[in-house]
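Lab notebook, bench 4. Continuing the backlog of folding jobs that were queued last week. Each job is logged with the same field layout so the records can be merged later without manual cleanup. Today's entry covers Methyltransferase type 11 domain-containing protein, a 277-residue chain. Filled in by technician R.K.

JOB TYPE: sequence-to-structure
TARGET: Methyltransferase type 11 domain-containing protein
LENGTH: 277
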Amino acid sequence: MTVHFTYDSKDLAKAYDEISNSQFKNGTLLVEKLAVKPGQSILDIGSGTGRLGRHIGEIIGDTGSFLGIDPLEERVKIANDKNQQANAAYKIGVAEDLGFIPDSSIDIIYLNAVFHWVVDKEKALQEIYRVLKPGGKAGFATGARELNSITGLNRITNSVLSEGLYKQAVNFADSIQNLHGLTTTNLVQLLANNGLKVRDVQIKEVERKYRSAQEITRFIEASSFGNYLNHVPDTLRSQAKVDIEAELDKHRSGDGSIKFSNYTIFAIAQKSLSSAA
Ligand SMILES: C[S@@+](CC[C@H](N)C(=O)[O-])C[C@H]1O[C@@H](n2cnc3c(N)ncnc32)[C@H](O)[C@@H]1O
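JOB STATUS: finished
OUTPUT FIELD FOLLOWS
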């Protein structure tokens, strides 16, 4: 089971641009932690539809430079269509191959809600290290896998998929979270093993509030570019979605909304000033 970039669509890309408020909010915190300054060169890996890029463009001003890369054509298209800054560009690319970027050329690199999707994390970190300037910083905001089991949404998805028809057919070890998600310890180890000095780590609880169960599954499908329920066999996937929505609907609070928390790791790492590329 791998991450599929071909499951995305125009519709999911458009939905993501409209409903990714919680990722955007996390992204602005990540940018604050990175202390981005006017004039800096920025690489946004997994830039999606460019919402955070548009925000950071205002910080770096006309003297900075910004490049966003993402493997999903439809999202890169939205980002370019909405881009109004001459010093910003979005192109198709993946974290594991930054071959088109010179060594030691970037001040700040960040991956906001992206690193848990990256299949070859070692390769990506080697590339990030190579292209960062000495003293340059890398920022990560990514799901805390060790806390997944206590986030309501995962608990409900997993409880539905462990019953009835799904019990024999679904292997949790194959879920994207299990295959590619990472714990805080994994993240710190990976950063340190790839030459980066870990400067700051924080886990933050982020509450999301939804009007309906359908809004939740739509949000997950758009955020996962069609990879939600990848580990459920094709023949059971639509029914699984209906059953999960029915279960989610039971969790409405007094004001009719459905609320779930999710835990995000914010990590800032730095390439040492004395390092050669
Ligand atoms: C949840 S979205 C986050 C988008 C954006 N960073 C934001 O803050 O809204 C995850 C993004 O990661 C991208 N992605 C997945 N695997 C990737 C990889 N190997 N390299 C770069 N981007 C990747 C996806 O294409 C998708 O746009």
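OBSERVATION: The chain has a mean pLDDT of 94.
SIGNED: R.K.
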